[in-house]
Structure formats: structure tokens, C-alpha cells
Amino acid sequence: MELVERHLPRIRRLLAALLNGSAEDMADAEQEILVGLWVGLDRFRFASSFRTFLYRFCRNKAIDLMRSEGRHRRRIEAARGAAATAAAADPGDGLEREERARRVERALGTLAPDERMLVVMKDVEGMSIEEISAAMSLPPGTVKSRLHRVREKLARRLGEGAAA
């Protein structure tokens, strides 16, 4: 129980990134993941950190759910849950901060699920390249190059939004 409580915010941020912040999809996936963790926790062999195991497990389960339920539709208002969970709003920041957050959410929503996941793991969760590499079963060099490309894509999309 304590293990779940400690890692539940991470699970929710990851699901928000992968499932575009859809509350219904996230609740379904969260339940599937928690049951799967409970049943399959004996598969954790301490070959990596628990956080790496958890991310890999959650990612794979969420992708399985998206595939099995045909949830590959695009949503413009993506990552709302990730942004809301990742950074609590400071009441003194006002409208400018809210507008900036909406622009970032919209830009994140245009990314593919794996691209959003990279950004969330690195920039929200603060995971190392090695941890991301293990969680996504990718070589570290691939993680670095994809993260670089995704950040450039986000910067371009945020720049386009500023001109509008």
C-alpha cells in the first residue's frame, strides 16, 4: 500500500502524458496498472531501480490498453492532467502564466504518446537518460537524440503559437 501511495503521482503523470489527459482513460488504465502491479510484483528482480521497473510496466500496460481499445485518436487539449499534476498553480502568477501553461499543453498535445512520455520523464520527473533508456528499452544515445528532436519540435510549435 505504501509503495503504491508513494508512486501513484508518477503513475498518474505518465498516464496523463500517454493518454492525453483523458480522465476516463486514465482512471481505467490506473486500475489496470494497479491490479497488474499487485499480481505481477514478483516479476521485479531488482535488476534495475523500482522506478525504472514501474515506468516500463506502466508504459507497456498503457500502450496495451490503447491498442486493445483503439485509443489512437488525437486530442487537441492533451497533457492537461500532466501539466496540472506536475506544477501546482501559484495564485500570484495570474493570467500570463495560465496562458503559457495552455500553450504548452496544446503543444504537448500535438506530440505522439512516446514523445510526450520522454518529455514527462525527463523534464517533469527528472529521470536520468539511463533511467529513461531502461524504462523505454532504448539505447541512451537514442533517448538523447529523440529528446533533442522532441524539444526542438515543442519549441517550434510554441514559437508558432506566440505569433498567432
What's the quick description here?
The protein is mostly helical.
Secondary-structure map:
Blueprint: H1 2-18, H2 23-40, H3 50-68, H4 80-86, H5 94-109, H6 113-124, H7 129-136, H8 140-163
Return the average pLDDT rounded to an integer: 75
Which oligomeric form is depicted?
A: single chain
Looking at this structure, what is the CATH superfamily? Winged helix-like DNA-binding domain superfamily/Winged helix DNA-binding domain
Specify the structural class: mainly alpha
Number of strands: 0
In angstroms, what separates the terminal alpha carbons? 48 Å
Number of helices: 8
Shape: globular
Low-confidence stretches: 71-83, 85-89
Give the number of domains: 1
The CATH architecture can be given as: Orthogonal Bundle
Q: Quick one: CATH class? A: Mainly Alpha
Spell the H/E element sequence. Answer: HHHHHHHH
Largest sheet, strands/sense/barrel: none
User: The CATH topology, please?
Assistant: Arc Repressor Mutant, subunit A
Beta-strand portion reads under 5%
Query: Helix coverage percent of residues?
Result: over 70%
Can you give a write-up of this model?
It is a single chain. The protein has 8 helices and no strands. It has 164 residues and is mostly helical. 27% of the residues are buried. Residues 71-83 and 85-89 have low confidence and may be disordered.
Descriptive terms for the model:
164 residues, 8 helices, globular, Arc Repressor Mutant, subunit A, mainly alpha
